[in-house]
Every structure is written in structure tokens, then in C-alpha cells.
Amino acid sequence: MTSTLDAPVVELTVGPVAHGGHFVARHEGRVIFVRHGLPGERVRVRVTEHDDGARFWRGDVAEVLEASADRREHVWDQADALAAARAGVEPLGGAEFGHIDLAAQRQLKSDVVCEQLQRLGQIDALERGFAGVEAAPGENSRGIEWRTRMAFAVTEQGKLAMHPHRSEALVPLTNMPLASAEIQRLQPWAANFSGFERVEIAAPAGSGEALILLVPRPGLRGPAEQAAARAVAEQFSQQASLGLLTQETGAAADGSGSLQRVAGRTWLTERVSLPDGGVHAYRVTGEGFWQIHRAAPAALTEAVLNYLDPQPGERIADLYAGAGLFTVPVAEAVGERGLVLSIEGAPGTSRDARRNVHSYPQAIIAQGRVEKTLRTETTRWGHAGSAEGQQRRGRQAGQTGRLDAVVLDPPRAGAGRAGVDQIARTQARRIAYVSCDPASFARDAADFERRGYRLEAVRALDLYPNTHHVETIGRFVRV
Ligand SMILES: C[S@@+](CC[C@H](N)C(=O)[O-])C[C@H]1O[C@@H](n2cnc3c(N)ncnc32)[C@H](O)[C@@H]1O
Hints:
The chain is α/β, with parallel strands linked by helices. The protein has eleven helices and 23 strands. Helix 2 runs parallel beside helix 11, helix 8 packs parallel to helix 10 and helix 10 crosses helix 11 (about 440-450). Mean pLDDT is about 90; it is low at about 385 and about 390-400.
């Protein structure tokens, strides 16, 4: 791969949007995946990857010769490819649609949802009632200040940094407009994080709480580590809790590392308004999973309950359940005569789920991979009930392993063939599928249709404004 600032520059017309935040263009018979453009624009492109034998090249728009009417001033100067080209630097990744009018961003994302469903699932989204990507409730007019969670790299000098797209280079941050007002108020880019290689910051929407997690550089141990953490804590006194996350591999939400308190608490309280008007408080440990967009927890809960339609007495599984965001309202809907089986893989996040649903005897929390745990848990009911279920609700014993409905919200890779197979085996009549990747959603949708389900309705929410990402929600019914 070649990636240099003195890359060759070619002039071309930008073509249609492709999945992944690129636009397809052609130059002298070769496909170039172009970022930071818009369909129909005449542009000069800095070709950042141009190996002779490659099937396609990649490039960033460096100059616009004929602009689209959908182009606007970029929301974040450090991610603005045009400003970066003028300054002779690379734009930061993470806001690759920041130069596009918000309504036009949503139209592009709608095109991607339709194209992926058609190409990977042979499904016509419009025929299934898809009405285009919807704005998140309460959307800011520029699509900024929505991220309640941020992860940063740190420079040798201790400054928060991020990477340009497909680059290991570290660029110190001067601001980050997608971060929520609560995170921006902390001004973390002005602080010094010497001694640490990664910093994660979470701040619940509308609350005074914030939690900063510090991941030490290799070799920083014992008193030196404690002193470095205290030096950071002093810069945020009273403004944020602080924890030290020591982790060899994996993502923070795996719960595979150890979280040590430095100042304040090691968890946050996230409050979500439920459709019935109530508010539920969820405890989320520093390294545990929680939705990123400030409006996502309430908006997704509403969408899931609408598609899932849980009824009193029903047996429902919440798969890839995180800290129990959907488990709680589903448990309320099925009531004590019903049952919710909540499966989450990451031990730390599953512990959060256990705490968050402890007052609902109808909820069973199982920690493990969905592909295996769904089968073992439901098979046990066919015999004597799960250990936990038996203990908490002896009457479940002797029931078969069938479910009435399933909600699943897998990571970007989707449920995959193994996950779809296990879910289909439960013979659930209704499935609500929440997905953060239209490609894996389309592939899994095709698998569900092969296993006797039909995608009856599909929506998409713009929970990642100014990026190419989009959240898709599908309702499948057994036919
Ligand atoms: C997109 S999150 C959804 C969490 C939750 N539904 C929510 O909205 O807060 C996906 C979750 O799936 C978990 N996960 C990933 N792969 C898994 C697997 N194979 N089995 C069980 N859980 C898994 C992750 O740890 C993460 O908590």
C-alpha cells in the first residue's frame, strides 16, 4: 500500500455512494474509491493508495471544481479534506460525511441500505415498506454533539489524538464537535495524559457525571502508574470520575481487563425514558457497552418494542443484550407470568445486565456467546429449566425450548449463519433485529428468509450523523 502526502492527483467525476463511506469513481478505466466527495461533483483527488496490481485505488478529494448543491462547510476543521489538502496534512477519520447537508447524508445512507439489501439479500427494501433513513429525535441542526462516548489515542507528549483514515499517524486534537456538550465541557484536548496510550471518556446525556478511563502505556506499572493517574485526576478534579484500565487484548467492553478506581466511581448511571412514560436507570461500568448517540437508547427501545410487540406471559429472548437496555422494558411487558432470556457475551457488560434487571424475577441473565448459549439455555427448559430459572421460577420447569419472539442487536459482524440458525430453531414467531451494519444485516436477512421468515418491515435511524454509519431495524415474521 502506498499512502503519502505527495500522492498523485487525478481529476474525475464522482459517482454513486458505496458502503463504507466511499463514492465510486473511474479514472482511465480504473475504479477509485473516493472519500469526501459527492455524486456528480467534478473534483481533483489525491490518490492515497495506488498499487499497480490493485483491483482498485483509494483517494481523498483535495479540490472541488464543480460542487454539488448538497455540499456545505465541514462541521469539523480537522476532518475537512479540503482544508487538510490546502495545509498539506491528512484529514482525520471519523466524520467522512461532515461536508454534506444532513438531509443529503440521510439520502445517501438510504441508498446504501437499499443497495445492500438488494445485492446481498435479494430483497427490495421499498417493497418491505422502507421509507428512508430518519433523523434521530432531537437532532442538532448540524448533526454534532451526539457522542456520549469517545475513545482517543494519546501522543508521546500526552495530548489526545486521533488517526487519519487507514493510517497509524497520530494527530493531536484541538476539538471534537461530534462529542456531546458534556464531554466538550471537560476540554480533554487541553489536558495532559502523559504515561497513557489510550483514553476513553463517557458522559451520560443531560447528567453531571463523567468517567475517564486511562489505559497505561506498556511498562508503566506500580507507583509510576499511580502517580501518572493522579496527575490526570488533578486536572479534572470534581468534574469527572477516573479509572485505570489495564488490558492486554480486546475491547474495553469485553470486561477482559481490570478496572481500578482512581477518583470517584467506576460506573455511570444512564437514564432512559421508556415509551410508557417511565424512566429506568441503568448502571454501566466504565468498560461496559452502552449506545453512543445520546438519543439512541430511548429511540431504539421504542423501535424495538414496536416491532417486537411483547405480550403478557410471552417468552422472549434479548440477544447480544449489553447491559440490559431492551431486557428491562421487555421484562415489564411480559410481566411475571412471562420470561426474558437475556444473553450477553462480555463478562463485564453481563454483570451490568445482572444488576440492571435484578428486580425482575422473569428475567434470566446468561453470559456467553449467543451461538452456543441460546441453544443450551432453551434446551435446558425442555428438560428441567435452567438452573437460575428453576431457582427463581420453578414453574418454568418442563416447558419446551420454544420462544414467542426474539430481539437481537449484534455487533457489526452481524449474527452470522450460526446465530441465525440458532434463532430460527427457537421457532420465534416475531424477530426484531437491530443492526449497525447494513451489509451484515442484508446477509442475515437473506438467511432468515431462507429459514422460513419474512422481512415484514424495515426502518433506519441516523444515529451516527456526519459519518457513513447508520442503524437499521427490521421486523421478521415466521411464515
Ligand atoms: C451492539 S451491542 C448491543 C447491546 C444492547 N442491545 C444495547 O443496545 O445496549 C452488541 C453486544 O453484543 C455483545 N456480543 C458480541 N458478540 C457476541 C456473541 N457472539 N454472543 C453474545 N454477545 C456478543 C457485545 O459485547 C455487545 O455488548
